[in-house]
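Review form for a predicted model. The reviewer records the input and the model, then writes brief findings.
Reviewer: anonymous (R2)
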Amino acid sequence: MAVVLGSLAGSGCASSAAPPAETAASGTESAAAAPKPKKSPAVQVAIPTESETAPFKLKADWSGPCEKADKIDINLGHTPETFIRAASCQITGKEPTDDQLKQWSEKLVKGPNTRRVDVARVMCLQGSRRCEFVYSDPWEAQPPLGDPPEIKAKREIGAVLMFFFDCPAKVNCGMDWANTHAPGMAEKSPALAFEKTESAYYVSSEPGFWKRELEDAKYAGLSFLLPNAYGPDIENGKLKPLEQALDSLKDPVKIGMFDDSWAWGEPWFTEFWKQKPRMSDTDKTAKILYEAKWKPFFKQIDKKHWYLFKGKPFIYFYNAGKLEPRDKSAAVFAKMKELFKADFGVEPFLAADSAYFEDRSQAKVADQKFQWNTFQLPNKRSRSVMNGSTLDAAMVKWDPIGRDHPGAVARPGDMMTKDASILEKVLKDSSDADLLILATWNDLGEGTGVNRNYDYYNEGKWLPPNYFMDIIRKSQMKAPK
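Model under review:
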């Protein structure tokens, strides 16, 4: 989980100093082409055709002039060669050398850890320049994607949906903090329009934010989303924009709850959230957790929008290391389920983080379990068979470098994953599961998002914003063997 507040970052996964937020600027093209080398030593990569990227269409490729810029646009230049030229020109005011073209283009195409921003950071260092970066949208427009697929797969897919973003340029929305960027992060986007609002920022106070994520998730073949509820972010009716977006759609994906326990004990919110309820105090802690999280969340979402598994509203409970002792958690969860049933008339289906199974009684309370970080697992996913159902869970992308190591260049030890190799493996191997939970749909800081981002770049090519969504979509359209 990626959270940045003020000048600090904190989460169940990592913490770091937050880099200064940036404001993106639109890229510009010029008909006045700068001179190019007659024989380019760069690795040649073709620009994707419109048929390959439809319904998205790339803007005209950058062609100069070669001029130094106050702010370096990381997203100018579609091919390795034109990008390297654009970066060198903006940073130094000079054309790159043949060696630079050759070395960087090879790394961009063949190096799994080389990102566009890494090229620019090294060039800035070599040029003794402190650079400010911006990230323009290389696509002409961000169109809607169309109807959902006909789902033939056995399993249902859900994903954790982050919404603790305060765009532009505030909490969890620094452009350098994320390596790929959703429309509306730095400037209002028509892709986030809602009713009379023609464009909006990527922020959860805007119904257009929720509508875009709901529509894209439906297109991708997801059955449900699990909004990541820290607690302070759902207080005082803050989920109203989500309910507005749900009600505006004919048949939206359903909504479960991701209970993220990170906020407990943090100093960033009110006095209430500075406490760390103790699992050893069963009744008191169950009441605090239930009334702070489960009750207000489900009170704000109409029952017709709830995701039900085996007829029960779905709750995914994450361990952030804040609620201790974990070996006393079963009684607390059992009491919370009782409180839920008393208020809503149905007991929730609880999938608990495997860490809470330190309490041996948890197997009799939780309905399912999951493991959060799956990168080190042999199959790149966790699998749990409990109570007659099979739940698979996986993280399929990873790039938290901007969050954890501001200003650093990606290294092999960072375990960065920017392609679809893990996603494709997980989708294939989980075809016999009842549920597959992806972590996450759109976490910018951890780089785990498979939602609509405009600057996915791999092997020297722009991937269309719906690249990962289409892989999920096609998988869900396959009937089980």
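Findings: The chain has two domains: 26-134, 156-476.
Further findings: The chain has a mean pLDDT of 92.
Recommendation: see findings above.
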